[in-house]
């Protein structure tokens, strides 16, 4: 009886071997077939010209692959993310269905297989938004912006700290076309026309003017990719307009009719 049982178990196992072989073969063939690239799902979204799929990359909460900024929203779709951030995105990454990351360069991470990025976007089953510790990365193919060295007689003093509750420059002066039209040229000429020797651009579209540096603001060293002055101007994507709590500060030594602080 016992030996009959053993024999039948062995016979069953013999039947499993061809099945196992067939399943391995099927997997091998599937891997050889061309896979639908994720970017095909985004082509329909009218991505800004030139945007292309870079690949699936690893990410690490302790050392982000794209560190410039992040945005998370449970109603995220790739399309929504792209439309919100397309004007400031250079490399953009989608992760864990609803997280959006961007940066000018890959700050870490390594290339992973496309199939690791297998999570669909939170509210759109037809788009892929990365995976666990995996980013679906796109490149907008835009040139990385530069710090404008100076214009209209103002020269750049670099990147300076600012705080909402204690401003570095205490006067706001609008530019023609408003925040959406902000650039260093418009910014410095508006401060000049209003009698200010210092001019600052912040957070892509904020305008600040003053005749002294207030509240203990200090220069932040480093290149634009690391010192926080990393947001392209709304009105000129090829130059920086400060960042979050950061001003690109400009000064002109030639102004003679300075207004007093508080006069404006
Ligand atoms: C845009 O920025 C670049 C770099 O700072 C500058 O050379 C160019 O004159 C700017 N264009 C305008 C219209 O301000
Ligand atoms: C919080 C703080 O100290 N704010 C100061 C920033 O600088 C302006 C101009 O000197 C002062 O009026 C504020 O009190």
UniProtKB/TrEMBL annotation:
The reply on keyword Signal is yes
Q: Which residues form the WSC domain?
A: 50-141, 153-253
User: Which keywords, in A-to-Z order, does the entry hold?
Assistant: Repeat, Signal
Span of the signal peptide = 1-30
The record's section on PANTHER family has: WSCD FAMILY MEMBER CG9164 (PTHR45964)
Protein name per UniProt: WSC domain-containing protein
């Amino acid at each position: 009886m016992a030996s009959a049982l053993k024999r039948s178990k062995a016979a069953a196992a013999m039947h499993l071997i061809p099945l196992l072989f067939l399943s391995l073969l099927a997997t091998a063939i599937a891997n050889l077939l061309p896979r639908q690239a994720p970017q095909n799902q985004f082509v329909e979204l009218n991505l800004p010209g030139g945007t292309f799929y870079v690949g699936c990359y690893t990410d690490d909460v302790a050392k982000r692959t794209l560190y410039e900024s992040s945005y998370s929203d449970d109603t995220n779709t790739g399309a929504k993310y792209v439309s919100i951030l397309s004007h400031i995105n250079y490399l953009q990454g989608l992760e864990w269905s609803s997280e959006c990351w961007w940066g000018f360069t890959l700050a870490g991470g390594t290339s992973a297989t496309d199939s690791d990025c297998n999570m669909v976007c939170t509210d759109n089953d037809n788009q892929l938004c990365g995976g666990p510790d995996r980013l679906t990365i796109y490149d907008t193919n835009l040139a990385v912006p530069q710090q404008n060295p100076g214009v209209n007689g103002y020269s750049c003093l670099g990147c300076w700290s600012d705080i909402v509750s204690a401003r570095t420059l205490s006067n706001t002066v609008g530019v023609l076309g408003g925040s959406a039209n902000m650039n260093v040229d418009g910014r410095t000429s508006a401060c000049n026309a209003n009698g200010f020797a210092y001019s600052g651009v912040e957070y892509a579209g904020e305008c600040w003017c003053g005749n002294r540096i207030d509240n203990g603001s200090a220069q932040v060293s480093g290149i634009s990719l690391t010192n926080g002055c990393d947001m392209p101007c709304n009105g000129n994507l090829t130059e920086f307009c400060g960042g979050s709590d950061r001003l690109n500060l400009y000064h002109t030594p030639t102004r003679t009719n300075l207004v007093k602080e508080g006069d404006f």
